[in-house]
Amino acid sequence: MILELWHGDSGNLMCDFRTEAEALGVVRIAIAESGADSVLAWGLLQRDDSSGEVRLIAEGSGLADLALSRPAPA
Question: How far is Cα 1 from Cα 18, in angstroms, rounded to an integer?
């Protein structure tokens, strides 16, 4: 499984991650540095390595809410 952070406005892959915690950590940092509006065009996708199936986890304000609702790893 790979998690991918995409910028919806540009259609560009920003980064990929092995865990959701890592991906949401990047979103939390962006929010802390630039505010929640800075991630409104972002989307987090989950891609299955073997099948190639893609699933949207969250985007925009939903992604911000998800990142802020999950505790940062200790």
Answer: 7
pLDDT of residue 71: 78
DSSP string over the chain = -EEEEEETTTTEEEEEESSHHHHHHHHHHHHHHH-GGGGTTEEEEEE-TTT--EEEEEEHHHHHHHHHHSPPP-
DSSP H or E segment with residue 61: helix 60-69
> How many whole angstroms separate alpha carbon 58 and alpha carbon 72?
18
User: Is the whole-model pTM more than 0.85?
Assistant: yes
Q: How far apart are CA 55 and CA 43, in angstroms?
A: 11
| Distance, CA of 40 to CA of 27 (rounded, Å) | 10
Q: What is residue 11's three-state secondary structure?
A: coil
